[in-house]
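COMPLEX REQUEST
Ligand: BES
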Amino acid sequence: MTDVYISSTPDPVTPITLVRTGDLSTWLESLDPAAASWVRSNRFEAEKNQFVWLPDGSGNPGLVAVGWDGEDNLETLGGLALSLPQGVYRIDAEVSQLQLLGWALGGYQFERYKTAPRDPAKLLVASEEDAAALASFESAITLVRDLINTPAADMLPGHLAAEAEQLAESFGAECTVVVGDELLDRNLCAIHAVGRAATDAPRLIDIRWGDPDHPQVVLVGKGVCFDSGGLDIKPASNMRTMKKDMGGAAQVLGLAQLIMAEQLPVRLRVLIPAVENAIAGNAYRPGDVVPTYQGLTVEIGNTDAEGRVVMCDALALAAEEKPDLIVDYATLTGSARSAVGAEIAAMFSNSNDVAEAIFRSGEQLDDPVWRLPLHQPYNYKLESKVADTVNSASTPFGGAITAALFLQKFVADLPWVHFDIMAFNTRARPGRPEGGEAMAVRAVYGYLQARYGQL
Ligand code: BES
Ligand code: MN
Ligand code: ZN
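STATUS: Structure written out below.
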């Protein structure tokens, strides 16, 4: 990765000024008449996502003016890194760390299979500490995006485990991986059932980091490296994007990187059930009954509701040590997308206080989350005639809620937050390129920092 944020440079630095939309005329009056008419002829109206060059005395670009709507978000500077010519810039205005972060997040390019035609423009920031703090967020979100954007053939359970091991090693964390039939010996039969038909064996990734005296936080992420739907196969149009079905795993690896890099005083555990939901003669079937780690038996109503089946074993494992908090991320249901769309994370929690605090943190950090209810009466939809529960309800109404209620059966009464996310931008926005995306990661990090940071 190129260093987008720098704190010193021998290169020439072009200043950037922010012009509030309402302040356009005042700002124009402050310019000399030639410059003002140049700005007007470029149709610059100081609206968000607009920018204009101002020539200096010798006719060279001397200043960039950027329109600003007054909001504190990723968008303000998010369109610049790949629109301005390569070079070094600095912001001559009061801007937040969040706005500065937009610069690098908007400069992201996925270069695993082809080199991008240009590098992002660089940003000179006030201090080395600022550059490091920004780079730490940038690098975590870049990790999330790269993991999701990498196609399934190069991001199978084994690859995902290797990524986790590498992350653990670079922060001196422990990482163990339970692979294939070993899952059966450990009573992780639900993970095994979903992943056993794939050539790359299913596995459970388990990272541990931090001081044992600190409060324990467990992050759990759905790592379905490809979701064909299984025997209840998906139609082609729905299957096309299913390389991103390990998006939950990507979120927790990125968030874990951030927590470890910033040395948050928590005892961190990361659990990722990593599988491919594939089709073969030994695939799990509709009607099968699967035993789980927690003890409940699950009747498979639909093999395409595989996420909750692998998550239930990981959540039960998470609950075993009675942590202070469990947070899970999963690309769990199409229903959550119908409810809040692709750009908002659906949040469920058994704690009003935690949910409200994360919601507020998300608002502050331009990372929108919206809470949906764990409506207990809908549990009737999960009743099975032959097992303790079914994995999927027979009608699609409230599908994100029934999926969350299913997961809740495995976390006991421990404080728990569940995110049902898209993990993918279906359109490009400033600071948010099309493709894999971190969702609810800044919101949760901000919350954890406020709750545990002062210990
Ligand atoms: N990975 C999908 C959910 C998904 C689809 C997330 C599209 C984001 C975008 C999940 O495994 C799935 O297939 N869910 C089914 C559940 C149903 C069979 C009960 C769904 O939502 O349709
Ligand atoms: Mn599925
Ligand atoms: Zn899935």
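REMARKS: The chain has a mean pLDDT of 97. The domain at 4-126 is CATH 3.40.220.10 (Leucine Aminopeptidase, subunit E; domain 1).
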